[in-house]
């Protein structure tokens, strides 16, 4: 609206001969002058430019003396004081400029013709703008100037392109230019222009950021990354399905840093470092590999610390534990697992854990988890297995419902404490088994936190006794006590095992009922007969054996009172007969006390000869000494007569 009014004023001024108060009107004088641009010779009908030379020319068509044509420039019409006939001048300030022409008459003075024209002087300052260097090959220009009606941007020697005001426009700069020129123009006049040039430095090629380490501490995420390029800008982003592109910017990262701390970080979260040039919108962007936080949690129960974790990343894990003394230990974490039970801990002690996930050259470390190992409910009562071994020692085996680290087992015999140990097995060797003496065992467990279980169900192994049923021991009676297992409702079955001297099972007989067995056919070639009872059932997970009971039968030698070594084929030699003749010495002595024969096995016989001499009739003394299988010594003696 202001421009329209100004144009109306100018048009009115151009069409009217102006005069000031006191000026002599000169209607129809035919006065006229025009303004021209000195540099181009172009006529300037309405607008002049600050700093651009203007030449005035009379256009009245009269033969006027130039020395008598005067001009004055002012903001209004002037009627006097004309002293300058110069026709060339340069406007110095913008605004409305009134140029008054005075053509003097023959008398001179102020009686000439006064004629004026109104012009608008346009300012031509250098336009203001900003230059932002984008990735190599691009530059962004924003015209911030408000002086001109239109603007043009020229990158290097490329053709100028129209540019809007206050809008960032990205231009190609592919031929290596390093300068930008912005030109401002007015739509009413083409000669009033302003230009400004600024240089820029092309950016180096962008390098992909390297996010190397992520560590969580409380609600803070600490990041480490490789050196950044100061020519670019960086932002830290976290995955967010609701955000455009699936990532949300949480912080700007200065390019002079190699580490960054994000407070009140979104956790758990997967992070990346994004590189962009400084143009808006960015021409180039490049992100690091995504690095996800690791969430570690821990609980304690029954003297064990239970760790579990989650992570949005992939890779192997390393779990470290620091105890109260500051000693750090790396704990083995099997591949593919997401939990770990630390049993090598002590109740009441504080342990600090951290979990690190490694993916190539990057690592993500969890927040520290501190656990004070504590106890929980009392452990369940153990189960006990009791059995005699072949040396008549009771072997006890305790089984726990869980497998806690540490803790103590207290074994009891007939209600009295036998021993306290961490061992899951115990051998009771100070025994002399007998049916009259009860023999029952139990066990209880106290974990590392001091929680004590109840006593286990008692287990009473079988006690076996064996006795000869007759003098010769050709029948043997076995009697035993009942097995007592942890489950009284489960039936029990028995088998009688006959053993060899080397503990091989010679015979096995099942006993359907009762706790006795009469062996009518004990081994005839064994002086000591050995037995064992095998019991199964009663809630035991394996067979329980009784003690080894044995019956030692007497060693006997049968020696004739006489024999006749006369070669008739009857009673010609002395043969040793008896039972269980194994480890013995048999000696014959003559009447002079001289030894004439000795045998140590039953195959040795005596034909009555002494050396090579024929048998001498008469009486001879003999002596028999033997040690049976039980170690008992037997001595027999007598006499034998040689008859011809």
Structure description:
The chain has 1 helix and 51 strands. It has 7 domains: 2-122, Immunoglobulins (Immunoglobulin-like), CATH 2.60.40.10; 129-199, Immunoglobulin-like (Sandwich), CATH 2.60.40; 211-292, Immunoglobulins (Immunoglobulin-like, Sandwich), CATH 2.60.40; 294-372, Immunoglobulin-like, CATH 2.60.40; 383-446; 464-552, Immunoglobulin-like, CATH 2.60.40.10; 556-642, Immunoglobulin-like, CATH 2.60.40. A hairpin with a 5-residue loop joins strand 25 (316-322) and strand 26. The protein is rod-shaped and about 205 Å long. Strands 15, 16, 19, 25, 26, 28, 29 and 30 form an 8-stranded mixed β-sheet that branches. Strands 17, 18, 20, 21 and 22 form a 5-stranded antiparallel β-sheet that branches. The N and C termini lie far apart (176 Å). With 644 residues, it is an all-beta fold. 2% of the residues lie in helices and 45% in strands. The model is unreliable at 1-22 and 106-110 (pLDDT under 50).
């Amino acid at each position: 609206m202001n421009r329209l009014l100004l144009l109306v004023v100018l048009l009115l001024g151009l069409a009217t001969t102006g005069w000031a108060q006191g000026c002599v009107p000169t209607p129809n004088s035919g006065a006229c002058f025009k303004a021209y641009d000195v540099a181009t010779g172009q006529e300037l009908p309405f607008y002049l430019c600050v700093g651009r030379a203007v030449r005035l020319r009379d256009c009245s068509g009269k033969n006027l003396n130039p020395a008598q044509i005067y001009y004055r420039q002012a903001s209004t019409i002037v009627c006097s004081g004309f002293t300058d006939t110069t026709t060339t001048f340069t406007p110095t300030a913008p605004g409305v400029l009134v140029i008054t022409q005075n053509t003097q008459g023959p008398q001179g003075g102020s009686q000439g013709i006064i004629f004026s024209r109104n012009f608008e002087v346009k300012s031509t300052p250098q336009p203001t703008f900003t230059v932002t260097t984008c990735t190599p090959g691009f530059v962004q220009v924003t015209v911030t100037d408000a002086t001109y009606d239109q603007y043009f941007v020229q990158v290097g020697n490329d053709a100028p392109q129209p540019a809007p005001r206050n809008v960032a426009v990205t231009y190609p700069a592919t031929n290596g230019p390093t300068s930008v020129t912005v030109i401002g123009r007015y739509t009413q006049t083409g000669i009033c222009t302003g230009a400004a040039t600024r240089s820029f430095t092309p950016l180096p090629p962008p390098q992909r950021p390297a996010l190397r380490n992520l560590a969580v501490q409380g609600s803070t995420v600490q990041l480490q990354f490789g050196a950044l390029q100061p020519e670019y800008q960086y932002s830290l982003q976290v995955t967010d399905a609701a955000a455009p592109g699936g990532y949300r910017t949480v912080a700007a990262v200065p390019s002079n840093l190699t580490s960054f701390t994000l407070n009140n970080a979104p956790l758990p979260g997967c992070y990346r470092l994004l590189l962009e040039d400084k143009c808006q919108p960015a021409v180039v962007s490049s992100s690091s590999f995504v690095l996800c936080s690791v969430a570690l949690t821990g609980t304690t129960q029954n003297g064990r610390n239970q760790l579990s974790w989650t992570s949005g990343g992939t890779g192997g894990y390393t779990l470290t534990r620091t105890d109260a003394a500051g000693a750090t230990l790396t704990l083995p974490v099997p591949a593919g697992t997401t939990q770990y039970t630390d049993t090598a801990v002590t109740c009441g002690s504080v342990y600090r854990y951290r979990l690190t996930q490694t993916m190539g050259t990057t690592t993500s470390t969890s927040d520290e988890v501190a656990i004070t190992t504590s106890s929980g409910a009392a452990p369940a009562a153990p189960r006990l297995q009791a059995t005699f071994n072949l040396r008549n020692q009771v072997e006890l085996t305790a089984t726990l419902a869980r497998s806690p680290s540490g803790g103590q087992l207290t074994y009891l015999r007939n209600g009295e404490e036998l021993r306290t140990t961490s061992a899951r097995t115990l051998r009771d060797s100070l025994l002399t088994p007998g049916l009259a003496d009860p023999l029952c065992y139990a066990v209880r467990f106290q974990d590392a936190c001091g929680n004590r279980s109840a006593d286990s169900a008692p287990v009473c192994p079988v006690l076996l006794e064996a006795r000869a049923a007759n003098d010769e021991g050709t029948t043997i009676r076995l009697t035993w006590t009942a097995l007592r297992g942890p489950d009284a409702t489960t039936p029990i079955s028995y088998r009688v095992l006959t053993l060899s001297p080397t503990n091989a099972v010679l015979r096995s007989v099942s006993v359907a009922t009762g706790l006795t067995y009469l062996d009518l056919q004990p081994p005839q070639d064994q002086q000591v007969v050995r037995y064992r009872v095998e019991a199964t059932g009663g809630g035991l997970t394996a067979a329980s054996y009784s003690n080894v009971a044995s019956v030692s039968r007497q060693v006997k030698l049968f020696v004739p009172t006489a024999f006749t070594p006369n070669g008739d084929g009857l009673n010609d030699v002395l043969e040793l007969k008896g039972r269980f003749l194994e480890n013995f010495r048999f000696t014959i002595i003559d009447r002079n006390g001289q030894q004439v024969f000795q045998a140590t096995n039953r195959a040795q016989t005596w034909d009555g000869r002494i050396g090579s001499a024929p048998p001498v009739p008469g009486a001879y003394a003999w002596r028999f000494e033997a040690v049976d299988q039980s170690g008992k010594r037997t001595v027999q003696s007598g006499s034998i007569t040689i008859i011809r």
